[in-house]
Design brief:
This protein is an alpha/beta fold and 592 residues long. Helices cover 51% and strands 9% of the residues. It contains 21 helices and 13 strands. The protein has a four-stranded antiparallel sheet. A four-stranded parallel sheet has the order 6-5-10-11, with helices on both faces. A three-stranded antiparallel sheet has the order 7-8-9. Helix 13 links the parallel strand 10 and strand 11. The chain binds arginine (ARG). Arginine binds next to helix 12.
């Protein structure tokens, strides 16, 4: 465990330090520096498994190794040690150290979490919907996971550069612009449409489908559309004007959805595919000159030994098509070069569907060969599984089309409204709306973040929006309940100092030890890029709090000192839940 300035060292760190010292005193030099393997334990506060892992190398029975270490194990935080089972060292810390830890965390800034990622510049590519198309279920996960990672990394001190890689370029826009040009009465600007923020994109989506139909059935329209693509690429002013209108109107709808979801993305984070047009020739030339891109059947391709199709034939990355056009791959090559050279990224995360894994492997391999991606820059594809419908298949409408994201959110909010209305029948309609929105959206986000990223999951509002179980509402409710307890604390008692001389009750002990792990849960997310590490931590924390609250009266405790310590426990738990939810991008209302 590395120590970071401004961070509070968890008791686990102090115990690990003590075991390391004991190892240095008791064991031969060549193994004394090994990881002391200190973990939480069901039988004591902590256990060290180091003897079991070193016994073979030392050619000694594990219990003997454990015994030797235990004999040397002394530290002011350690109250008792015990050799158990085949060679575990069980460790109990002192009551004073438990309360001191609570006191230190209560006083610390940022809940005692440091900024180990200071100095990193992390580009996070996420959300990235396509212009003139409604955001659908396929954009849910990238948006939610990407945003949670942006929050966590930036909390840990990294400079995060959010990049919304909008699909804003391609031949389809020539077709759409031509169609719009031929239908001057079509309404798609927000100021001429009634309805919500989705109205422009809904209208554009429809025009797009009509354009596609005409393109497929009317050869002369198809010719005019192709001519329009040429005009767009040549920078024809009138064509570009319509195009930038399309982009702007689409972004209005996207932004409304981002605001509703509570994600950090703003228009300033947009750097769509078109951003990189001006570099495509240059990048291609560079790859050709270096012999990395070669001609194959009229196209310019990069080949790799490691990427082969099912037929055993090599799968190339196509830099330029045989018709001279650039596609998705060329853009991503120019993009990665830009992110390294112009944005100065030390890390680049691509939060994109698992199905694009090979595309990114090829882009990274090409960038490495070209010398853009060096050893001091890390490019990572952060893949995720599919959102499934009730039938266990990728979520679609009955007619097979994709479901707009706003509809999915509405269904969760609707479910939340039913449940909340039932639980709190006398909420006024305005508060009910607010609570239902926070609970519904929070539950969708939590359901998405609380499983292993790569796993598929079923979008089931009945399971997601549930006051019991591992759900967003459960955590929001746990947080709100703590706030409500704290509202009843007399002002004079709210900030009493923690009394470190008291005996610690078992449920208090478990809760402090859990609170002490917050920083580790957050850094685990940064290391593994798995937000569920934090989600799972918060769930366990909420449970520890419930057990504590059942076993230990807070406001009704007779002894003022006991009351004071318990109030401090409530406060720190409430703050930790609130911060954890914030890092996941989930609202934590004071009342629910
Ligand atoms: N717009 C793409 C899609 O909807 C996602 C883009 C992901 N980012 C990237 N740099 N390729 O599939």
């Amino acid at each position: 465990m590395t120590e970071v300035q401004g961070s509070v060292r968890p008791l686990a760190g102090a115990v690990a330090g003590a075991v390391s010292q004991a190892m240095a005193a008791a064991l031969p030099a060549e193994v004394a520096g090994a990881d002391p393997l200190v973990r939480r334990s069901d039988h004591a506060d902590f256990q060290s498994n180091v003897a079991l892992s070193l016994a073979k190398r030392l050619k000694q029975p594990p219990r003997e190794v454990a015994g030797a270490v235990t004999e040397q194990l002394h530290d002011e935080v350690i109250a008792a040690t015990e050799l158990s089972g085949p060679g575990f060292v069980n460790i109990t810390v002192t009551d004073v150290s438990i309360w001191s830890q609570l006191a230190v965390r209560t006083r610390a800034d940022r809940l005692g979490v440091g900024t180990p990622l200071a100095g990193e510049r992390v580009v996070i590519d996420y959300s990235s919907p396509n212009i003139a198309k409604q955001m659908h279920v396929g954009h849910l996960r990238t948006t939610i996971i990407g945003d949670a990672l942006a929050r966590v990394l930036s909390f840990l001190g990294a400079q995060v550069i959010r990049q919304n890689h909008l699909g804003d370029w391609g031949t389809q826009f020539g077709m759409l612009i031509q169609y719009i040009d031929e239908h001057p009465d079509a309404k798609w600007h927000h100021d001429e449409l009634a309805g919500d923020a989705d109205a422009p994109i809904v209208a554009l989506d429809r025009l797009y489908r009509q354009a596609r139909e005409k393109f497929d059935s009317d050869a002369r329209f198809a010719d005019r559309a192709r001519a329009r693509v040429v005009a767009l690429q040549a920078g024809d002013a009138a064509t570009l004007q319509v195009w930038s209108d399309l982009v702007a109107e689409s972004q209005l709808s996207f932004q409304a959805l981002y605001d509703r979801l509570g994600v950090l993305l703003t228009p300033e984070d947009s750097a769509g595919e078109s951003t990189y047009n001006e570099y495509l020739d240059e990048v291609t030339d560079e790859l050709v000159r270096a012999g990395i891109a070669v001609e194959s059947n009229g196209a310019l391709c990069v080949f790799f030994d490691e990427f082969k199709g099912p037929d055993g034939q090599p799968v190339p990355l196509i830099v330029r098509k045989s018709d001279g056009g650039y596609g998705y791959a060329a853009t991503d090559l120019a993009t990665i070069r830009y992110r390294i050279r112009k944005l100065g990224a030390t890390k680049i995360l691509y939060v994109v569907d698992a199905r694009q894994a090979q595309h990114f492997q090829m882009v990274f391999a090409t960038a490495r060969r070209a010398g853009w991606l060096t050893d001091d820059v890390q490019a990572t594809h952060v893949p995720f599984g599919t959102v499934l419908g009730p039938d266990g298949k990728p979520f679609k409408t009955r007619s097979g089309s994709t479901i707009p994201l706003s509809e999915l959110l509405n269904s969760a909010v609707q479910r939340a409204r039913e449940i909340v209305a039932e639980k709190a029948p006398d909420l006024d309609p305005h508060t009910l709306d607010q609570v239902a929105e926070a609970a519904g959206i929070g539950s969708v986000k939590y359901a998405d973040l609380s499983g292993a990223r790569i796993k598929d999951y079923v979008f089931d509002v009945n399971r997601m929006v549930n006051f019991t179980g591992n759900t967003g509402v459960y955590l929001q409710y746990a947080h709100a309940r703590i706030r409500s307890i704290l509202r009843n604390v007399p002002a004079t008692e709210a900030t009493a100092a923690v009394d470190v001389s008291l005996v610690v009750a078992p449920a208090e002990r478990a809760l402090v030890l859990e609170l002490d792990e917050f920083g580790k849960a957050v850094t685990d997310v940064a290391d593994s890029l798995e937000p569920h590490r934090l989600a799972g931590y918060l769930y366990t924390l909420a449970h520890s709090f419930t057990s504590f609250y059942e076993a230990c009266p807070v406001l009704k405790a007779d002894d003022a000192r006991v009351r004071g310590n318990r109030i401090a426990l409530c406060t720190l738990t409430g703050d930790t839940l609130a911060k954890g939810l914030e890092l996941l991008g989930i609202a934590a209302p004071e009342r629910i």
